[in-house]
Design brief:
heterodimer, A: alpha/beta, Rossmann fold, six-stranded mixed sheet, four-stranded antiparallel sheet, B: mainly alpha, two-stranded antiparallel ribbon, 14 helices, 2 strands
């Protein structure tokens, strides 16, 4: 079994009286794809922000490669090797594609020439080679999301946290994202994906963690999770869950 | 960029030989003021343009440069060039003291904080007897020489000194644009959280930008003190000066290498000429005219005048 690269233990995050994450634990092995799903407001993005240290968790421990990172800051997390994207696209709008990727590449290549070479290489992987001098603001949403992943990839992470990369994309674009994610895994990346698009995430995730109202309600392989009572209840409501249970009993 | 570079080289050549042909002290004075403001505006552009942190306190650095030079010279007989160095060190110190808490503020709040700092510095110097309080300081007349940084028979040496300072500022700005620093500054301006997620310590880089800005402004303060030989708080630490720097950069082209230079060439003559010709017509006509200009440019070319010349460049 491969080593555990990221361990989240009992993470709790409160905003005033609202508990956005309560006692959430999961761990990720090297080269895994973990899907983080749950209804809107379940606390997925909060958990992301805790792992990437944009928020500091109120309780619990987050360990990356044996090193505790719970109370660090976002920039040092990136330097350690955890890269993240945002739910709302955050590309540098006034810069072109190459420059956007270069900002990421500068982290490990302080010289401009090296950063540019690295950025061009990354642009190739993410199919941006013919769009290097296009301003980020004039890319489509799907391209901007891909650019954001490219930018993070250029910082040389080992773990990537991708927040709703497939939201708002069409079927063709979803298929392309799925291919891209698999490609990233082949290159040795471990990934946590927050996703609402089930047809995108379910086929590729090794394991799925389900959150609801800030708590973890299920964890397992995609197959286990879709048949989990609690998950069905969270997504479709108790009525449907009861009816479904009744039906299976009749059969 | 090619066309811009060509225009720039042409400008430098013209500036370099200009005094040989036009022997009018007023025009020299005007050009000296233009170049001094251009240098400071380039400094402002580093923090306000590239990094996107609007500062209305840069006059404090100008004042520190001027006062450090004057006081060291008057009280301790220390050479103005060393005074310039002292001014730079003090200015960077102030930039760090101000930046450390203020860069935690986002957007407009940083701008407001810098207004406060600029005004506080002005008030301190207006009421501090050791630095001459509101009366200011007269610098001693010394023998004309480059080492003494004083020339009385002609403005030409000042002209070339400030030209060299301007070239230095342009070189610094160019080096920033072409290095990691410049990319990081622009990333911070565009999206601070995005920048942090890519491993950029935004606090540190804002501080670096502010310090560079402070140095480029402070050396102009030293120059001004040696040029006019009389400084007082309202001529060196005025909020209006900080605002002018901001306007010059906006007019010329914010975040562009030559934007501040172009802005200074448009704004300073306008300011000086309206003051010379209209200033006596009643207070404020000059202000009305240049306000109109600023409004016109803001509506018609929000990217600044440099965008007209560098059309086609990104």
């Amino acid at each position: 079994m491969k080593t555990e690269i990221l361990i989240v233990e009992n993470v709790t995050k409160r905003f005033g009286g609202l508990t956005a994450n309560e006692n959430i634990s999961f761990s990720m092995r090297e080269g895994e794809i973990i899907g983080l799903i749950g209804p809107n407001g379940a606390g997925k993005s909060t958990l992301f922000n805790c792992i990437s240290c944009f928020y500091n968790a109120d309780g619990g421990r987050i360990t990356f490669k044996g090193q505790e990172i719970t109370r660090r800051n976002p920039e040092s997390i990136c330097r350690l090797g955890i890269g993240r994207t945002f739910q709302i696209v955050r590309s540098f709008r006034d810069m072109n594609v190459l420059e956007n990727i270069m900002i990421g590449a500068f982290l490990r290549n302080p010289k401009r020439k090296d950063a540019q070479a690295k950025a061009e290489e990354v642009a190739g992987i993410f199919r941006f080679t013919d769009k290097l001098s296009v301003r980020a603001a004039s890319l489509t949403i799907s391209e901007q999301k891909r650019l954001e992943v490219a930018r993070v990839f250029a910082t040389g992470p080992e773990v990537m946290l991708l927040d709703e990369m497939m939201a708002g994309l069409n079927i063709q674009e979803i298929r392309e994202s799925v291919e891209l994610i698999l490609r990233l895994r082949e290159m040795g990346m471990s990934l946590v994906l927050v996703e609402h698009v089930m047809e995108g995430i379910m086929p590729i995730a090794n394991r799925v963690v389900v959150l609801d109202y800030g708590e973890k309600i299920a964890e397992g392989t995609p197959d286990e999770v879709i048949n989990n009572e609690k998950v069905i209840e969270a997504y479709f409501g108790q009525k449907y869950a009861n009816r479904r249970e009744h039906k299976t009993r009749l059969q | 960029m090619k066309k811009g570079l060509l225009a720039f080289l042409l400008l430098i050549c013209v500036l370099a030989v200009f005094p040989l042909f036009l022997r009018d002290p007023f025009v020299w004075h005007l050009l000296i003021m233009i170049m001094m403001y251009a240098t400071m505006s380039i400094g402002w552009n580093v923090i306000g343009g590239y990094t996107g942190q609007v500062s209305f306190g840069n006059a404090a650095f100008f004042g520190l440069g001027a006062y450090a030079t004057a006081i060291l010279l008057v009280n301790y007989n220390i050479n103005p060039w060393l005074g310039m160095l002292a001014g730079c060190i003090l200015s960077v110190g102030l930039a760090i003291i101000v930046g450390y808490p203020c860069f935690r503020l986002r957007g407009h709040y940083f701008a407001i904080a810098t207004i406060a700092v600029g005004e506080i510095m002005g008030l301190i110097f207006t009421n501090w007897d050791y630095v001459g309080a509101a009366v200011g300081i007269y610098l001693p007349i010394m023998e004309e020489s480059f080492a003494n940084f004083e020339f009385h028979s002609s403005k030409i040496p000042y002209y070339y000194i400030i030209l060299i300072m301007l070239l230095f500022a342009i070189a610094v700005s160019y080096a920033i644009e072409k290095s990691r620093l410049g990319y990081y500054f622009r990333a911070i301006k565009d999206d601070p959280d995005g920048a942090r997620s890519l491993g950029i310590d935004i606090q540190k880089y804002k501080m670096i930008a502010f310090s560079i800005s402070a140095v480029l402004t402070s050396i102009c303060g030293t120059f001004y003190a040696q040029y006019v030989l009389y400084i007082h708080p309202s001529s060196t630490m005025d909020l209006m000066m900080s605002i002018h720097l901001c306007i010059i950069v906006m007019i010329g082209g914010i975040g562009r290498l030559f934007g501040p230079v172009l802005g200074a060439f448009v704004f300073i003559p306008l300011m000086e000429l309206t003051r010379v010709y209209l200033g006596s017509e009643g207070q404020g006509i000059d202000m009305i005219i240049y306000s109109l200009l600023v409004i016109t440019i803001a509506i018609w070319k929000p990217q600044g005048l440099w965008a007209l010349i560098s059309k086609g460049d990104k």
